[in-house]
Design a protein that fits this description.
alpha/beta; Multidrug-efflux Transporter Regulator, Chain: A, Domain 2; Rossmann fold; five-stranded parallel beta sheet; two-stranded antiparallel ribbon; elongated
Length: 307
Amino acid sequence: MNKVKKEFSIRDLENLSGIKAHTIRIWEKRYNLLAPERTSTNIRTYSVDSLQRLLNITLLYNAGNKISKIAKLPQKEVQQMVRELAESKNKNNHAIANLKLAMIKFDEVAFHTTYTQLADKLSFREIWHEILLPFLDEIGLLWQTDLICPSQEHFISHLIKELIFTNTKSVKDQVKENNEKTFVLYLPENEIHELGLLYLNYEMTLMGLKTIYLGQATPLEAMEDIIQYFNKIVFISYFTVSPSPDKINEYINNFQHLINSENKHELWILGQQVRHMDSNNIPTGVKTFNTIKATIDALPAIVNKNK
């Protein structure tokens, strides 16, 4: 998909709201909840405003309100009820819905307004796990169903990166750093999916660990200089799409040759490609983790060991 969507099909609304297309048609016919346009071939299309209305209705409906009651409410009252829900147990769903709309409309102000409201009550860690991770999962599904375009995905990813950078900087200014061991976080060549690694860098900074973040598409050769400055480095990389399964062993061998010929360092690998690795054929000093959480759970032992 190369163009930004301004019109949505009923299937798009189903994927974005979680309400079945058949149910949306019933609501539309029985309660006149939405007013779709019609193409020349009589196919329903819906505007961004219709999507926003449906997302609000969905929040109220999922909270236990009868659709017949919602249908009778003025739009302002619907919005007021949604705001009240946002302050109660349904705040996560409301925040995720607002982030979706901010992404679709390229609305940076709405994104930051939503985040600021969350940050008044939640820590960044809570926002990440309760709001941003589920939202990122939904982005993946929206991408697969061709509901968002690359520019929308890049737009929202950039804003989330900025949040992680800002919170990491804030932590770094407050936490005393432990210099016993250095952690170098990077993505291999052809790998650009860095949000997970950025968040891991935040958690490690929060623990007082010394981190060096190199970022996307880092060649092994570019890291040779680092080992001249630090001992006991733990290199941490995230393999989402690269290296491919048939190239992982070659990559590890190259790492051992170029970076770890004296066996002084470690390589920790996360990401989807880990599942293709043979656990019985992993060199000493190389560790694999299936999730970011598993990696974070392993860190306290290092922190305590360094005290």
